[in-house]
Amino acid sequence: MSRLHSRSWVREAVRIIEADANRSADTHLHVFPLPAEWGIDLYLKDESVHPTGSLKHRLARSLFLYGLVNGQIGQNTVLVEASSGSTAVSEAYFARMLGLRFITVVPRSTSPEKIALIEFYGGECHYVDRAPDMYPEAERLASECNGHYLDQFTYAERATDWRGNNNIAESVYAQMQSERHPVPTWIVVGAGTGGTSATFGRYVRYKRHTTKIAVVDPENSSFFGAWETGALDYATGMPSRIEGIGRPRVEPSFVPGVIDEMLQVPDAGSLAAIRLLRERTGHWAGGSTGTNLFGAFTLISRMISEGQAGSVVTLLCDGGERYANTYYNDEWLAQKQIDIAPYREMYQEFLVSGKLAPVV
Ligand SMILES: Cc1ncc(COP(=O)(O)O)c(C=O)c1O
């Protein structure tokens, strides 16, 4: 594929993307209120306030810069991705900014809200019936139109600068500096591509922080089994019900070596937690944030039982408005036979006693 793109076009494209970053403020770090006597503080990094509404705004920016500096994106390049949603929304935004055509391969089951968002930013959706067909179809489409496959699952860990450069980890530590426990005991994130956990895991090791990284995994996902057994070919072949995280196979950007602990989280626990978040803080989040909160509460209850003070940081990954007709709709939950009531009780008890009694 020997083609040289005009250097002046690439220079201007990089300027436009950097200008977007320069116009954007950093995302907030919110406090989740816990009883003061616990001596533990919980924070949520609010990635829903990015211009395209999720943590994927950072990844999309990195993937575009990575493609531009590698000579893979030029003024006539058709961009292709395989995404279940958030990444495609952000990539469509950057493609439009550069005046490029953007096609994303999505499962037919993707929520109408996400499809509307991708098309709002000028993206085109190309449907496949089965989630595993997304990757080969994206590759076929890219070669058919002599385009560039951005391929978040492969390049997320490579395109993101783990040393700093205002990555999400550097931003968290800067915003924690004046807190009573500035170096978190735990950082809790989920995994879709695995890029976010790789960035945090590498950064804390590079900066020689004592912080440990915990990755939460929803039902049906392959990551926990792979991490626990060490078998990176571990595959469930099953889709996740928590949009954005959990994968039918282990993705190339998943870096198990930087993960100190993994926790499996029941979907009902994730979806009960985002209701609690809204009640206690007013913040409206997507399902993967609930998975993060379940993980954070589990580690906090352990810290309490071990008499350990400290801070825990997790992510508010995207906004809840995208899930008004699903996770926040009781009929949808009933249809999916997801009973969140026992977990809502569990969280009420936890926020009083600090004990997270397992739901049987
Ligand atoms: C809403 C949401 N949360 C969490 C994640 C996980 O992030 P990562 O892909 O960096 O593992 C994603 C990824 O798509 C997402 O869309």
TrEMBL record:
SUPFAM superfamilies linked to this entry: Tryptophan synthase beta subunit-like PLP-dependent enzymes
N6-(pyridoxal phosphate)lysine PTM sites in chain numbering: 56
Enzyme nomenclature, EC number: 4.4.1.1
Ranges where the Tryptophan synthase beta chain-like PALP domain occurs: 32-318
Enzymatic class: lyase
MF (Gene Ontology): lyase activity; pyridoxal phosphate binding
A cellular component annotation (GO) from this entry: cytoplasm
Any Gene Ontology biological process: L-cysteine catabolic process to pyruvate
Keywords, ordered alphabetically: Cytoplasm, Lyase, Pyridoxal phosphate
Task performed by this protein: A cysteine desulfhydrase that generates hydrogen sulfide, H(2)S. The H(2)S produced by this enzyme stimulates respiration in M.tuberculosis, mediated primarily via cytochrome bd with a lesser contribution from cytochrome bc1/aa3. H(2)S modulates the balance between respiration and glycolysis, and also contributes to redox homeostasis. Probably eliminates toxic levels of Cys (which can induce oxidative stress). A cysteine desulfhydrase that generates hydrogen sulfide, H(2)S. The H(2)S produced by this enzyme modulates the balance between respiration and glycolysis, and contributes to redox homeostasis. Probably eliminates toxic levels of Cys (which can induce oxidative stress).
Family label: Belongs to the cysteine synthase/cystathionine beta-synthase family. Cds1 subfamily.
Protein name in UniProt: L-cysteine desulfhydrase Cds1
